[in-house]
Amino acid sequence: MAAKFEIASAKAGQFTWVLKSQGRTLATGEPYGRRALAEKAIGSLRKAVAGATVSDLTVKPKAAPAKTAPAKAARSKAAPAKTAAKRTAKAAKAAAPAKAAAPAKAARKATKTVKAAARTTAKRAGKATAAKTSGTARRRGGAAG
Length: 145
What we know:
By secondary structure, the protein is of the alpha+beta class.
């Protein structure tokens, strides 16, 4: 049995269409203010349905066969596992009780920082002395002394 469109008037001045087949409602349209608009919608649906295709979204598409990965790509895939292992090892070290070497290491680092600051200060002092000397030389007419 073929499907058929029915145009009905739900309210005064409101026209809707219904597509039925074997007593079942297959589709319904929105309310239109004029009967001609409801008929035009039916014509548009007929044209669209004539060239419609079916897309089954419930079936997962088959994956393309995997290509053989170059050696570099294979290594890069293994890298995340190695990185995760390194992170786990670092976390275990951090959670372990502090060793006696840790305070000594911190003291060495502090000493390096102090020495670097002293060098910077000495450089600045040397530049200031050089600037004063060059100013004195200018005042004396170009002779340093």
